[in-house]
Amino acid sequence: MFSKLKSLYTSTSKTILGTSEAEAPTTPTLEVEDSGDAADRVSDANQGRRNSLFVMLKDFIGVDVTTTLSLPIWLFEDYSYLQRMCEMSEFSHPFLDKAAESKNQWERLMYVACFSIAGYHGSERYEKPFNPVIGETFEFIRPENNVHVIAEQVSHKPPISICHCENQNFIVNQRAEINLRFLGNSVDLDTKACKMYVHLKTTGEDFVLAYPKSVIHNVILGRVWVDHHGTVNIRNLKTNDSCDVNWKKCGWFARGRYDVEADITDAEGNKKINLSGKWTKSLSAKWLYDGDQPSGTVVQLWTKDPTQIGIHKVPPFALELNKMDEEYERLLPVTDSRLRPDRRFLQTEDSDNAAIYKLRVEEKQRNQENRRKAANEPWEPRWFRLVDSPDGGQYWSYNGEYWPQREQKKKFLQEGKTEEARTVLVRNNVYGLACDFTSYVNTNNSNTITTTTTTTTTTTTSTAPTATATTTTTTATPSTSETTNTENSN
Are 127 and 312 a contacting pair, CB within 8 Å? Predict the structure, then answer.
């Protein structure tokens, strides 16, 4: 098996990492990075599909493949990347709520650091989320602490995703601009353009957070696993306190696998609190000074819920992000990630139709992007605008319009004003665009989508609308020509 893949790798005639074939190494190999876990050495039943993936990608070694290729559907999970960004809101309570309530500046920084580290536990899943199309959105309301989340894809090239998370105590703004480089048997995730801002309303403090480097190992040979590594800084712009978070790179025989350690220091560089643990399991804090806690005190701040659900082994919180019944679907804008047809088919394990609609979405976005480029028409995001950032640059800030318009749409629907409801919660001329996910349904007689739902109701706080939870079943009958296109796209 390995010799076959090695032969494929050495036979490529394309330019590799900026060098010609003659200049490239004559005996390249696919390095298998062992995670050290016995389970990781179990043979992979899907090796045949992974071999085909290598044949597809062998000419793109070292190349950014973020928007270059249409990847096969079996690599994906039934979430958009906007939903993945929203998963971090799970840890807004208790960490950010506690940070807002704390009277100690170093403990506030400690809780912000815990929020950023624990939020990575979902990234242990290596299945790829769907790339959001430009104009795609996602909303979520968390009743436990009245958190409202709105996310939007504001750019196609480069792909930029923005997520705004807010309640009465804090505001979180995430910017994700991730480029994927295929390196033979691994994928490098370039996160240097990613940034997060946390604002505590109770203290007026702004925190700036960077993202660690990320690598997905053994995408062709061996058991797939994810590693985050590098030292990143979290800074309190008001007090100049800082936290250096060391995401430790996994060494030989799994030494340091998933380990993370952080030191919280004051403006003069004196260490106040040490954080340690694994970003996949737990975090502890040790006080290094006599304050609210005596020096030497160790407190367990977070332990991961080990529950994993479904074929993609998602945490329970992630399941909430796909729940939708018919009433909630009417309230959502047509751009919401839950309505993506490819995602909805994959949710019901219908990979064939998921691949068909994934190709449709990609082709529609590509054609529209080419038309906008030819007409020199820049895309204007609906819910975010560029403003000066707290650290002196610029960032995409929420314009404050989404939730008031959502309430207006809800009122129109309650009054039976269906046409009026169509005019709010969307950008001008959105219908028919790639991000109008209702435009892919019933487009011809040979293609239909139907849904059945089972509904339970969850009542939110007084300032949030009522959210509903469902299990949705989706079926479709594609045309023969569309099935052929799926094979061509993969």
Answer: yes
Q: Round the average pLDDT of the chain to a whole number and report it.
A: 83
Q: Are 313 and 128 in contact (CB under 8 A)?
A: no
User: 3-class DSSP state for residue 183?
Assistant: coil
Burial of 250 per CB tally in 10 Å (0-12, 13-18, 19+): buried
How far is it, in rounded angstroms, from Cα 321 to Cα 436?
Answer: 19
- Measured distance CA(183)–CA(418) in Å, rounded: 51
- Quote the distance between the C-alpha of residue 7 and its chain's center: 35
What token pair was written down for 119?
């939020």
Residue type present at position 372? R
Phi, psi angles (nearest 5°) of residue 151: -130, 150
261 vs 284: CA distance, rounded Å = 10
Residue 354 to residues 208, 264, 286, Cα–Cα distance (Å): 38, 46, 48
Q: Which of 32-46, 80-94, 105-119, 250-264 has the lowest mean pLDDT?
A: 32-46
Per residue in 377-402, pLDDT (tens digit) is 999 999 999 999 999 999 999 999 99
